[in-house]
Amino acid sequence: MQFGIFSVGDVTTDPTSGRTPTEHERIKAMVAIALKAEEVGLDVFATGEHHNPPFVPSSPTTMLGYIAARTEKLILSTSTTLITTNDPVKIAEDFAMLQHLAEGRVDVMMGRGNTGPVYPWFGKDIRQGIPLAVENYALLHQLWREEDVDWQGRFRTPLQSFTSTPRPLDDTPPFVWHGSIRSPEIAEQAAYYGDGFFANNIFWPKEHFQKLINLYRERYAHYGHGTPEQAIVGLGGQVFMRKNSQDAVREFRPYFDNAPVYGHGPSLEEFTEQTPLTVGSPQEVIEKTLAFRDTFGDYQRQLFLMDHAGLPLKTVLEQLDLLGEEVVPVLRAEFARNRPAEVPDGPTHAARVAAREAEEVASK
Amino acid sequence: MSALKLVVVAAGLGVPSSTRLLADRLAGATARDLRGAGREVDVRVVELRGLARDIADNLVTGFPPPALRDAVRAVEEADALIAVTPIFSASYSGLFKSFVDVLDKDALTGKPVLIAATGGTARHSLALEHAMRPLFSYLRAAVVPTAVFAASEDWGANGADGTGGADGSLAGRIARAAGELAERLTGRPTAPRARAAEPEQVVPFAQQLAALRAR
Questions:
Q1: Type and span of the H or E element at B5
Q2: Number of domains in chain A
Q3: A204-226, pLDDT tens digit by residue?
Q4: Which domains does chain B have, with CATH numbers?
Q5: Chain A: closest CA distance from residue B89 (Å)
Q6: CA A129, A131, A135: angle at the middle one, nearest 5?
Q7: B204 in contact with A at a CB cutoff of 8 Å?
Q8: Where is the composition biased (Basic and acidic residues) (chain A) (predicted)?
Q9: CB contact (8 A) between residue B62 and residue A203
Q10: In chain B, what residues touch A275 (CB-CB under 8 Å)?
C-alpha cells in the first residue's frame, strides 16, 4: 500500500496572521513539501492542476520534473490532470517525458476539473465534460501504446501516422488513476481499462463513495481484469495533528472556520463527525484512516491533504513529520495485517515493467 | 395496499406559525379525503425552521447533515407533497427556496404537489402563481390547479369558517385543493363535479334581504 500527500496548490491567507503568501512563496512551499514527503518516508506526492487564481499549479509536469531531479524514491503524480481541456497529445508527451526524467517514478490521475470557466478558456463546452473525458482518454491510451496512430474524433483535429514522442519509458505507460467524486461514468471508464479509481472522499460522507467504489470494483471484474477485490482503489484523507488532541483542535479551528471549501458552514466538530477530516492526535488519525478499509475494502493508495486553508509552511512540515514518523508506519503495519495475498500493492513502474515482460514471455 | 406517504414541508418561522397552521389544515383535509377513499395515509411534517442551519451548511459543503438528509429522503420518497411557505418580499421565503435548492433536480419529477402560502394581506396571494408554481413546474412536479393562500384576515371568523365552507372561503379553498391532491393519488374524484347538470339552486329573495337586516 502507498501513502502520500496531494496538494491543491491554493494561495490562501493565513487567518491567524492575515498574511497571504506570494505565488512564488507558494510554489517553493509546494516543492519543500514534496521534498519533505520523501524525507519522512512517504511514497507519493501529487499536485492539482488549476488555471485561475488563487491557485498556482497550472503546469504540473514542470513542477514534478523539478521535484523528480531532487528526489530519489518519491512517486510523482497529479490530482488531477484535466483530461477534458488539455490536448491528449500534449498529456501523452509531457508525462512520457517526465517518466524518462524521473526514471519511471510517475503516474497520473485524470479528472474533469471543478472550475466551470476552464472549459471555455480552453475552447471547450462544459456540457461535453464526460464525452471529452471519454474520447480524450481513449486517444491518450492509444498514443502511449501504439507508435503509428491514425485517429479521428469529435473534439480534436485528426491525426495521420502520428507518433507521440518520447515513447513511454520501457514501453510501459504511466499508471493511470481516474478521479471522480460523483460520476458513475468515470468509475466505468476506470474499470473498462483496468486503471485505478481514486475517490476523493474528503469533503463528503462515506455512503456516497461506497456506491461509486463498489460500482468500480464490480465493473473491473466484469471487464476481466481480476476480482472486485483486486481493483485498484485510491482514497483521500484530511488531517491535522498535534500530540495532544485539544491542541490540534485549538490550532486548526481558525483555519477550518475560514477554509475556502467548507468554511463559514458547519462546525469543526460536525464536519469531523460527518466526513473523513480528523483533527486530533496521531492515534485518532490512525483509527479514522484504518476504518476506511472497513468501508471501502483493501485499497492501494492513501493520499492526505495537508497544505491548504492558509496553513504556514512551517506548520505543514511539522504535520508531515508527525505523518511520516507516527502515523504511516502504524498504518503500513495495520493495513498489511490480514490483507489477502491476491490484493495487489500500489502500482509502481518497476512492477508494471515486470508484469509486462512476464506477459510477453507467456505469450511466446 | 401500503399506506400513502404524504409529506408536508412548512417554511414558517414563527412559533406558533400560521404557515404551519395552514399546512396542518391542508394535510388534515387531504388525509381525510384519502381515508374516505379507503386509503391508509402516513403524514409527515418537515418544519424547515429546525433545519435552517443544516440547510445553510449543505449549501456551503455540498452534502446534507443527518437530520436534513432524513428530511430530503422523506420528500424524495413521498407519494405527494404539500409545500407551504410564507411570502417574503413578493416570493417564497429564502429558507424555503434554499431547501428546494438542496433537493436533487429530479427529486420531484412527476410528484403530485399542493402549493400554499401565507401572508399579511391577500395582496400577496398571486405570489403563488408567479413564483411558487413556476418553481415547481421547473422541477417537473405535478402541481394541482388550486393553490391556497391564507392572509391574516382569513383566520378570522368571516374568512375561515364564517361562510360555512363556501367555495371562496379559506376552508372552501383548502377542501378543494386537498380534494385535487387526493384525486391525483387515488385516481378518482373525491367530490362531485358535474354541477352543470344540476338544476340551479336559488335562495329566495326575501330570505336574502332578511339575512342582511339581521346584521
A1: strand B4-10
A2: 1
A3: 888 889 999 999 999 999 999 99
A4: 4-213 (3.40.50.360)
A5: 26
A6: 120
A7: no
A8: 354-364
A9: yes
A10: 63
Give the pLDDT mean for A61-69.
Answer: 98
B131 confidence band (pLDDT: 50, 70, 90): very high
| Residue A130: all three cell numbers together | 464526460
Output the CA–CA distances (angstroms, integers) from residue A246 to A242, B1, B48, B199, in the order listed: 8, 55, 34, 81
Q: Do the Cβ atoms of A10 and A255 come closer than 8 Å?
A: no
Task: Give yes or no for a contact between A266 and A259, defined as CB atoms under 8 angstroms apart.
Answer: no
Cell of B25: 389544515
pLDDT of residue B195 exceeding 70:
no
Task: Tell me which residue in B56, B59, B61 faces A203 most closely, judged by beta carbons.
Answer: B61
Cis peptide before A166 (omega within 30 of 0): yes
Rounded Cα–Cα distance for residues A195 and A208 (Å) = 21
Tell me the three cell numbers of residue A279.
Answer: 483533527
DSSP string, A298-364: S-SEEEEE-S-TT--HHHHHHHHHHIIIIIHHHHHHHHHTT--TTSPPPP-HHHHHHHHHHHHHHH-
Condensed to tens digits (0 to 9), the pLDDT of residues B23-57 reads: 999 999 999 999 999 999 999 999 999 999 999 99
Domain of residue A311, CATH code:
3.20.20.30
Tally A–B CB contacts below 8 A: 29
Chain A positions in Cβ-Cβ contact with residue B62 (cut-off 8 Å): 203-204
C-alpha cell at B93: 421565503
A263 and B61 within 8 Å at the Cβ level: the answer is no
Nearest Cα residue in chain A from B56: A265
Strands A149-151 and A159-162, bridge-based pairing:
antiparallel
Q: Do A263 and B57 touch (CB under 8 A)?
A: no
Which one, of A33, A123, A114, lies nearest residue A87 by Cα? Answer: A123
Q: Locate the chain B residue with the closest alpha carbon to A266.
A: B57
Task: Express each pLDDT in B1-18 by its tens digit.
Answer: 789 999 999 999 998 999
Q: Provide the residue count of chain A.
A: 364
Structure pTM? 0.87
Whether chain A has a CB inside 8 Å of the CB on B57: the answer is yes
B137: exposed, middle or buried (Cβ count in 10 Å: 0-12, 13-18, 19+): exposed
| SS3 category, A101 | helix
Contact A270 B66 (CB under 8 A): no
Helix axis angle for B66-77 and B52-61, nearest 10°, is: 90
Q: What's the gap in Å between the CA of B183 and the closest CA on chain A?
A: 37
Supply B81's cell numbers.
407533497
The reply to whether B165 touches chain A by the CB within 8 Å rule is no
A184-193 vs A129-145: helix crossing angle, rounded to 10: 10
**Residue A190 sits in which domain range?**
2-363
Q: What nine digits make up the cell of B95?
A: 429558507
pLDDT for the residue A205: 83
What is the ipTM metric for this complex? 0.77
Residue A55 DSSP symbol: B
Please tell me the predicted confidence (pLDDT) of residue A92: 98
